[in-house]
TrEMBL record:
<dbReference type="InterPro" id="IPR023631">
    <property type="entry name" value="Amidase_dom"/>
</dbReference>
<dbReference type="InterPro" id="IPR036928">
    <property type="entry name" value="AS_sf"/>
</dbReference>
<dbReference type="InterPro" id="IPR000120">
    <property type="entry name" value="Amidase"/>
</dbReference>
<feature type="compositionally biased region" description="Basic and acidic residues">
    <location>
        <begin position="1"/>
        <end position="11"/>
    </location>
</feature>
<dbReference type="GO" id="GO:0004040">
    <property type="term" value="F:amidase activity"/>
</dbReference>
<protein>
    <submittedName>
        <fullName>Amidase</fullName>
        <ecNumber>3.5.1.4</ecNumber>
    </submittedName>
</protein>
<dbReference type="Pfam" id="PF01425">
    <property type="entry name" value="Amidase"/>
</dbReference>
<comment type="similarity">
    <text>Belongs to the amidase family.</text>
</comment>
<feature type="domain" description="Amidase">
    <location>
        <begin position="44"/>
        <end position="463"/>
    </location>
</feature>
<keyword id="KW-0378">Hydrolase</keyword>
<feature type="region of interest" description="Disordered">
    <location>
        <begin position="1"/>
        <end position="22"/>
    </location>
</feature>
<dbReference type="InterPro" id="IPR020556">
    <property type="entry name" value="Amidase_CS"/>
</dbReference>
Amino acid sequence: MSVDESQDREAGPAPARDVGAGDWEGLAEQARALAQGRVSSTALVRRSLERIAATQDTVNAFKRVRAEAAMAEAAEADRRLAAGERLPLLGVPVAVKDDTDVAGEPTAFGCAGEFPLKQRDAEVVRRLRAAGAIIVGKTNACELGQWPFTEGPAFGDTRNPWNLAHTPGGSSGGSAAAVAAGLVPAALGTDGAGSVRIPAAWSHLVGIKPQRGRISTWPEAESFQGITGIGPLARTVQDAALLLDVASGNHAGDLHRPPAIAARQAAGRDPGRLRIALSWKPATTFTAKPLHPDVRAAVTGVARTLARLGHFVEEAEPDYGLVGLAFVPRATAGVGEWAARVPDRSLLDRRTRGAVRMGRVLGGPVLRRARLVEKRQQRRIGALFGPYDVLLTPTTATPPPRIGTLAKLSGWRTDQAMIAACPYAWPWNVLGWPGVSVPAGFSADGLPLGAQLLGPAHGEPRLIALAAQLQDDLRWHERRPAGHPAPLDGVPR
C-alpha cells in the first residue's frame, strides 16, 4: 500500500459518547421489535414526532411533519401487526426529502412560496408504504438541491447534530440531520452531485448513491437530465441496504431500469480480497481544491484498515478527462426544469435565477452533446476497473463548514467554494454509477468526515459488502452525538 506518511496524523476526538451497538435502534432493529410484539408502531411514531418537535428549533431537520396522519397510520400498522401481517418495515417511522411527492403534502424542494398539495405519492413513496413504513415527514433541502448546505429563507438553517454551529451538508441535509439526531432510524435523500454522500460524510452516516434508475424517480422519467437519483441515509450499512431494497424498483415510465440486486444479502457477504485504488486527485474544474489535512489523515486511515483486512490498496488515479463539461449543462437544465414549476419565481434565490439563465444558454445542442458523450466518459473513467475493483476517495475535501459560510455568497463565489469543499462526488452522477460514503472518523475539531467507495455500473453489491466489512472493524455506528435521546422501552438495547 502506498500512502503519504507525512499526512498520517491522529484526528481529534468527536463530541460524542461510545455506546453499545444495541443502544441505537436502527431500521432493522425497530422492524424486528415490532414483529416480535415488543413495541408498538404507535409508540415508535409518537416518540419520533416528539423528538422532531423537540429539535425543530435547533436541528431544524423537517419542512413538513405529518403528525396526525402518521399517528393514524401507526394505529393501522398496529392492527395489522396484531392480525399477524408481516412486511419489511411494517410500522417503522421513516422520512423522505422535500423533493419527493407525498400525497396530501406540497413538494417545495427548498423554495419559498405556496405550493399545491400533491394528489399522488411518488413511486418510491408508494414502495415505502407497500413495505409498511410510516412517513413521518418531509425533510429540509436547499433550494432545488444545488448546494452542499441546507439553509434558506424558506425554512431557516438546518444544523449538524454533531455541532450545531456547522452544516450537516446538502442538499439532503435534513434527511441526514434527522437520522444523525435519532429522529428517525433512516431516511431517503436524493443525490445529483453528492447530495446523499456529502451529508452522510458530514453527519457520520452511511449514504448510498445507487446505480441510476435503481430507485424510481417517477413521476419524473429521469431527474435533472439523469444525474440525480434517490438513495438511503442510515447509521449502519445493514439499515441503508434494507432501505435500498425496500425502495428499489421501477415504474413503467422510467427511462432507466437496471437489473435488480439484493442489497441486504450483500451486506452480510464477505467481499473477498479486492484490489482498491486510492485516489486523491479530483476531476478537473480549473478551480483550487486543496485537501484538508484532517480529511487526508482520515481517508488514509480507512485505506490502512482495508489493507489490514487483506485487500490490496495502492494509489492510482482515474482518467476523468473534462467530465465537468458534461455535468454543468445537465445540472443547470435540471434547475431550469424544476424552477419552471415554482408558483412564484420572484422568490427564488438570485443564484438559482442565474443557474436558470445558464441552463438556457447551455440547452439545446450543448445539452444534447453533454448527453451523447456519456458512453465515452464511462469507457475512459471505467478503464480503472480493469486493474482495480473499487475506487477509494475522500467524500469531501474539507470538514463541514460553519452555518452561513456559503449561504450569502454570489453565484460564482458559491460555485468556487462548493467545488473546493466537495470536488469528489459529482463525476459519478454523470456516469450514473454507484457510490457509498462511509464514516471515516473526525476532524481535530470533532467534526465528522467520510470516505467514498466507488464502483462501476451495477456495482452496489460489492461496495455494500466492503462497507459492511469496514463497519465490522471500525464500529462507527457505536458513536452518536452528545445529548442523543435514549432508546424506547421494548426496543433492543
